[in-house]
Amino acid sequence: MPVDCQHIGVRIKAWASVLVSVLKRIEGVESAYQSSRVTLNTYLSGIQSSGLSHLGNWFGAMRPHIQLQELEGEHFYFIADYHALTTSRDPAVLKNNVRELAVAYLAMGLDPERVTFWRQSDVPQVTEIAWMLSCVTGMGLLERAHSFKDKVAQGVKPNVGLFTYPALMAADILAFDPTHVPVGADQKQHVEMTQDMATSFNAAFGAEVFQRPEPLIESDERLAKVVGTDGQKMSKSYGNTIWLFETGKKLKKAVNQITTDSRPPEEPKDPKGVLLFRFLELFLPAEELEGWEARVLEGGVDAPGYGHLKARLIEQIEETFREGRERRMEFLNDPAEVDRILVRGAERARERAIAVRDRALKACGLR
Ligand code: ADP
Ligand code: TRP
């Protein structure tokens, strides 16, 4: 029946355009979608379980990951617990961070039916691939890693694991043949190093073992690099974070940490120079945000003070994550369900990683 077919065609087109517009902000997704007509895309990413997820992790990584699951294709997300070991020294804390990260993803909407979701250390093939990659990687490449240099500059005494971190990350990625790696802007260089390692290995052994993936970075700078309470990039290592599920007095305390100055409310101020607006713009609808900005710019007796702005921010953070906080409690009260999801994810992930590991072993003559 030609009329029905046309109708279905229109509906499919409309549905596809909704998806594309939702994800338009993420660089490359449109082209990813285009190419998905030929072969399906595979999205893969990981987050270190080195602390509780903060607003930067949410906007820069977790939210895009959860949104991407709506796209046709394969989806792989994991908890990078081996990476966390480069800095973690407290077993109980590490265990708790792994659980909290798994729960955060699930509570915020990651669908384990659509996404293969696992814990990195449950797929040991990745560490085997990391070794093979490290044997074709020059010291110079690793020495140029920004995140390594930053940590050393902060006074961290580097261990070998921290230095070879990019080789393990490259293995995490290459073990699953992904086409796209959605990450925050700070991880772009690591994905580029992954591309280099894939090329080096393939060239060294004259075989197409690893597929070069593309980084997928949020193109809205405010989301790709969320600022912390001190105005630097929000990061667990800078102690300037706001935990995603923070609430009540503790949330108030965290928001109060956002740096302000002593200018009075009446004094007209450029909102660009007010750190609080970097937070408000993540949460408020555009129209409301413009209203607050105009009043601050104008100054005078009706202008809101920093206290007003903080109160509004707290209210909106509470509201945005209310449902997530409730679902977090449900998952925390059902640890067996979380374990079941991770175990099943690891089984699926291992199947894939074994095939790639075998390809690599064969290419270099170990089998
Ligand atoms: P941290 O810097 O707090 O240790 P991670 O390195 O564990 O954060 O990052 C986990 C994910 O969250 C990565 O994809 C990273 O790019 C993203 N991310 C981390 N901090 C931010 C931020 N401030 N803004 C946007 N994305 C971020
Ligand atoms: N390095 C990433 C971070 O700090 C975590 C990570 C480990 C990762 N392996 C990965 C991200 C593979 C993407 C793909 O968040």
Q: What features would you describe in this structure?
A:
By secondary structure, the chain is mostly helical. It folds into 2 domains: 218 residues, HUPs (Rossmann fold, 3-Layer(aba) Sandwich); 75 residues, Orthogonal Bundle (Tyrosyl-Transfer RNA Synthetase). Helix content is 57%, strand content 7%. The chain contains 18 helices and 5 strands. The protein has a 3-stranded parallel β-sheet with strand order 1-2-3. The protein has a two-stranded parallel sheet with strand order 4-5. Strand 1, helix 3 and strand 2 form a beta-alpha-beta unit. Helix 10 packs across helix 11 and helix 14 packs parallel to helix 16. The longest helix has 30 residues. 36% of the residues are buried. About 2% of the residues have low confidence. Adenosine-5'-diphosphate (ADP) binds next to strand 1 and helix 3. Tryptophan (TRP) binds next to strand 1, helix 10 and strand 4.
Briefly say what this structure is:
By secondary structure, the protein is mostly helical.
Element layout with pairings:
Layout: H1 2-23, H2 29-35, E1 42-48, H3 55-68, E2 74-80, H4 81-84, H5 91-107, E3 116-119, H6 125-134, H7 139-143, H8 146-153, H9 160-163, H10 165-174, E4 180-183, H11 188-205, E5 214-217, H12 221-224, H13 248-256, H14 275-283, H15 286-298, H16 306-320, H17 322-332, H18 335-364
Parallel strand pairs: 1-2, 2-3, 4-5
Helix pairs in contact: 5-17, 6-10, 6-18, 10-11, 13-16, 14-16
Bound molecules: adenosine-5'-diphosphate and tryptophan.
Adenosine-5'-diphosphate binds next to strand 1 and helix 3.
